Amino acid sequence: MHLTPEQKAFYDENGYVLIPGLFTPEEAAAYRAEVHAIDARQGETNATWASVKGDTAIAHSHDVHFKSGAFTRLLTDARLTGIAQDIIGPNVQLHHTKMFIKPPERGSPFPMHQDYPYFPHRDHSMIAVILHFDDAPEEKGCLCAYPGSHKLGPLPAEGADHHVSQTDFPFDGATTVPAKAGDAIFFNYLTVHGSGINRSDEARTTLLIQLRDPADPQLNNRHASRGQGMMLAGIDPTIGEFKFAWENGDA
Ligand SMILES: O=C(O)CCC(=O)C(=O)O
After folding, report:
1. Within 6 Å (CB) of ligand 1, which residues are found?
2. DSSP secondary structure string for all residues of 38-63
3. Distance 188 CA to ligand 1 centre (A)
4. What are the two backbone dihedrals, phi and then psi, of residue 70, each rounded to the nearest 5 degrees?
5. Which residue, by CA, sits nearest to atom 3 of ligand 1?
6. Every domain of the chain and the residues it spans
7. Which of 2.60.120.620, 2.30.38.10, 2.40.30.170, 3.30.2130.30 would CATH assign to domain 5-248?
8. What is the mean pLDDT of each run of 10 residues along the chain (251 residues)?
C-alpha cells in the first residue's frame, strides 16, 4: 500500500495523514484482542502524564513485539512499511512500539506536545503511526493535531512531560482526527498533537509505532527500547565492520 499523490501532499502540508482501512475490521479486532490480552497478563498500568494526573487512567505497554508474535508480524506488514517508505524513504527502522487502552468514561488525555524532545534526531525523519483497533470518534479522545506545526521546527518544551505551551497551542484550537477500527494516522514527530479524555462507554485501543531513517542519528541517549534498530524495510546503510552483539555491548 502506498500514499496517493493527494495523501502525500496532505502529509507534506499538514504533518499528518489519516489512512482509512489500512487493516480490515477483522484484523483490527484480532489486534485489539492481542492488546487487551497483554493488558490482562501484565496487570494494572497507568501512563497518565504528570501534568494531567487526576481521576483518569490509561493502560499501556512498551515493546509489544516482545510480548506477542502478532505484533512482530505486523511491524513488517507491507501496508504499514509501504506508507512509511513514502514518507521516510526506502529505509525504515524501528524506534519503539507502545500500546494504549483509554478505558471507558475516564481515559486519560494527552496534552499538546511534539514527540521531538523525548528522542531528538538530527534530520527529523522520525514519524509516529497510530493504528486504531477500535473506533476513535471525538468522544473517545481521538488524536488532535495542529496542521502545519511540523514546519515550526522544535518548539520550547515545558514541565516534566515536555509538552508545548498550552496557551500557544490550546487543546480546543487543534483539529480532531477521528478514526475507525483499522485506520492509521501517520504523523511527523514535530507535529503538535495530543488527545482528549475518553468520555464514551467503550475503550479506545491503539498501537503507536515510532519509525525513522537509520541514517538519521538520535541526538540523546534516552528512550532506548527492545528491538530498537530493527530494519522493517530497506537496508541500514550505516552498518560497518561485523561485530558480535556482545562486542557492541548490545547483549
Ligand atoms: O494515543 C494518543 O492519543 C496520543 C499518544 C501520544 O501522543 C504519545 O504517546 O506521544
Report:
1. 100, 110, 115, 130, 143, 193, 195, 206, 208
2. HHHHH-------GGG-SS-B-EEEE-
3. 12
4. -60, -35
5. 195
6. 5-248
7. 2.60.120.620
8. 96 98 98 98 95 94 98 98 98 98 97 97 98 98 98 95 95 97 98 98 98 97 92 95 80 50
